[in-house]
């Protein structure tokens, strides 16, 4: 399983966005930093479709200003 975490901290915004790819399934978890957030999962026809979808989502989030953080350094409130 590949899991990546991104955070956006600006003004009063303290948000996180995580994406996990496991085979044909892509799970996105998002919310305010310090909470569990909410999750959404999508299943694709094959692993390549799932990986392409994840890459597209990551590109969109980084374009919006989210920065990737090391999952082992995640702070909780």
Protein model, in words:
The structure is a single chain. The chain is α+β, with helices and mostly antiparallel strands and 77 residues long. It has one domain: WGR domain (q64v53_bacfr protein fold, Single Sheet), CATH 2.20.140.10. It is built from 1 helix and 5 strands. It has one helix at 47-63; strands at 2-10, 13-22, 25-32, 38-43, 67-69. It has a 5-stranded antiparallel sheet, with helices on one face. A hairpin with a 2-residue loop joins strand 2 and strand 3 (25-32).
For the structure shown, list the relevant keywords:
77 residues; alpha+beta; q64v53_bacfr protein fold; five-stranded antiparallel sheet; 5 strands
Number of separate helices: 1
From the helix content, strand content and strand pairing, which structural class follows?
A: alpha+beta
* DSSP E strands, number: 5
**Percent helix:** 10-25%
Q: Which strand-content bin applies to the residues? A: over 45%
Count of discrete domains: 1
CATH superfamily: WGR domain
Order of helices and strands: EEEEHE
How are the strands of the largest sheet arranged? 4-3-2-1-5
The shape, in one word, is globular
Mean pLDDT: 93
Summarize the biggest pleated sheet: 5 strands, antiparallel
- Give me the oligomer status: single chain
CATH topology-level fold name: q64v53_bacfr protein fold
- How far apart are the first and last residues' alpha carbons, in Å? 26 Å
Instruction: Give the low-confidence spans.
Output: none
CATH class: Mainly Beta
Rg computed from alpha carbons, rounded to a whole number of angstroms? 13 Å
CATH architecture: Single Sheet
């Amino acid at each position: 399983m590949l899991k990546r975490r991104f955070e956006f901290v600006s003004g009063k915004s303290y948000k996180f966005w995580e994406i996990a790819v496991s085979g044909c399934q892509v799970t996105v978890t998002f919310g305010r930093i310090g909470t569990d957030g909410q999750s959404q999962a999508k299943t694709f026809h094959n692993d390549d479709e799932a990986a392409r979808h994840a890459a597209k989502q990551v590109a969109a989030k980084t374009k919006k200003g989210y920065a990737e953080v090391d999952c082992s350094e995640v702070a909780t409130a």
